[in-house]
Amino acid sequence: MMFYKECRATKLKKRPNYAPSILGFRQFQLLVISYQLLVISYQLSVISYQLSVISYQLSGDYFYLFSPVHNS
Prior knowledge:
Helices cover 78% and strands 0% of the residues. By secondary structure, it is an all-alpha fold. The chain has a domain at 30-67. The termini are far apart.
């Protein structure tokens, strides 16, 4: 009889409200997505910088400026 009372007590417990945790998880997902977009934009800026350096190297100015001996 005691076991039956314990079971009923657990059944009568109030269900936890999952809405705040779901909303918090949604905000966390949005935070992660915004962070990923920030990282992607940073990587794209680094790539564009590298491409500009490469294009500058392909033009002859780079070798002229950084060669140890050049006629002025």
